[in-house]
Amino acid sequence: MEKVHKNEDEWRARLSPEEFRVLREAGTEKPFTGEYTDTKTIGVYRCRACGQELFRSETKFDSHCGWPSFYAPADSDAVELIEDRSHGMLRTEVRCARCDSHLGHVFHGEGYKTPTDDRFCINSVSLSLEPAE
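== peptide-methionine (R)-S-oxide reductase ==
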């Protein structure tokens, strides 16, 4: 995979202010406001910043947490997992492995009946959905 490197000005020119805040500054969109929170459209979810395939609709599930949830990435190499100790918590941040954009967080062992028991809690604004034909 070829890495994508841009400076802050190039990212600002490419992304909306909200996309920049979430993807490049590790922000979080408000719960239950995202474009893909409840969608059932079949397709591929890509990184909004660089287009890298991240998740597939068959791994999306209703977690009722306010953000789109997936139980696994499309490919383990598509995302990078980083320890996040911000806000007085210990979490695992999910970033795009291609362009290093913030996507959300992954949580394990919450009791969801999924094949992995993982919940990749991803900001809608970090994604673009490519519907299946």
